[in-house]
């Protein structure tokens, strides 16, 4: 049997939270109850970077300074005017929702295995006593194409597979542009820094957070940092939930229509 690169390792298999939520529970099962977190502060807002301004001769310098500050002080920013069409974004959002709404009999074909974390399930579950997130994920390698697990991306239903094919290449191109400008902000030649990531692995992760009977007791996704160069987040709706850590406080991210939230990952962190 052909062996495939396994960038994520393994995770213990756990039940689907989406299916659990369909049971009309009045209380949350004990394993999903999380310790109380600090309340998020309402201000300040995370920085907003305009890609058109970065690409404009007239405004590039000032927008590059904003990008530099956003990466240095926050590690996060919202990206607007990024050049990815709103029609494609809407198509991605709708088809992701349809994918999660498939019958369990269909989703089982894409479930995680004990040998690979890719697929439906939860990530980084390492013990039977570990607290679980109130949410399901679907994660897979998208690029390079030869690294795709044969039972995941190639078996996705149409037109979802074609939509993600286009979207994954758009995200790679956008990531390369962002990384190039980050390099410029650090006085690194743009092509030099892009060459470091041009042949890298792209993973796509989709998170689904069903309603909870006790939302104050659960967490959709446990606090973490991303072991990536960049994470480009697209939120399916404008419900607030994402929070980032700054100056020892949790700051909520208020999603903007058609904007991406960009997270500078651990690989690009400069000490």
From TrEMBL:
Record bears the keyword Endoplasmic reticulum: no
Pfam name, any one: DIOX_N
Species of the source: Glycine max (Soybean)
Record gene name: LOC100802304
GO molecular function (one): oxidoreductase activity
Keyword Oxidoreductase: yes
Record-stated family: Belongs to the iron/ascorbate-dependent oxidoreductase family.
Coiled-coil ranges per UniProt: none
SUPFAM superfamilies: Clavaminate synthase-like
Domain of life of the source: Eukaryota
Domain spans labelled Fe2OG dioxygenase: 200-271
PROSITE patterns the UniProt entry points to: FE2OG_OXY (PS51471)
Protein name: Fe2OG dioxygenase domain-containing protein
UniProt keyword annotations, A-Z: Iron, Metal-binding, Oxidoreductase, Vitamin C
């Amino acid at each position: 049997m052909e062996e495939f690169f396994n960038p994520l390792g393994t995770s213990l298999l756990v039940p689907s939270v989406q299916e659990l939520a369909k049971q009309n529970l009045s209380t949350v099962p004990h394993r999903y109850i999380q310790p109380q977190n600090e309340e998020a502060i309402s201000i300040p807002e995370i920085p907003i970077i305009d890609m058109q301004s970065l690409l404009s001769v007239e405004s590039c310098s000032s927008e590059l300074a904003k990008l530099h500050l956003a990466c240095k002080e926050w590690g996060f920013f919202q990206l607007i005017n990024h050049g990815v069409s709103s029609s494609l974004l809407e198509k991605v959002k709708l088809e992701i929702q349809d994918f999660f709404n498939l019958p369990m009999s269909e989703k089982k074909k894409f479930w995680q295995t004990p040998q690979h974390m890719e697929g439906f399930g939860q990530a980084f579950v390492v013990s039977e006593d570990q607290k679980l997130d109130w949410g399901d994920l679907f994660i897979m390698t998208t690029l390079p194409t030869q690294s795709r697990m044969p039972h995941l991306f190639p078996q996705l239903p149409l037109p979802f597979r074609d939509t993600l094919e286009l979207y994954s290449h758009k995200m790679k191109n956008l990531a390369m542009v962002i990384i190039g400008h980050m390099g410029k902000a650090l006085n690194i030649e743009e092509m030099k820094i892009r060459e470091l990531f041009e042949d890298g692995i792209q993973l796509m992760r989709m998170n689904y957070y069903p309603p909870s009977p006790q939302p104050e007791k659960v967490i959709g996704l446990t606090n973490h940092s991303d072991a990536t160069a960049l994470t480009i987040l697209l939120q399916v709706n404008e419900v607030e939930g994402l929070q980032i850590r700054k100056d020892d406080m949790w700051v909520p991210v208020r999603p903007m229509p058609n904007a991406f939230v960009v997270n500078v990952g651990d690989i690009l962190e400069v000490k």
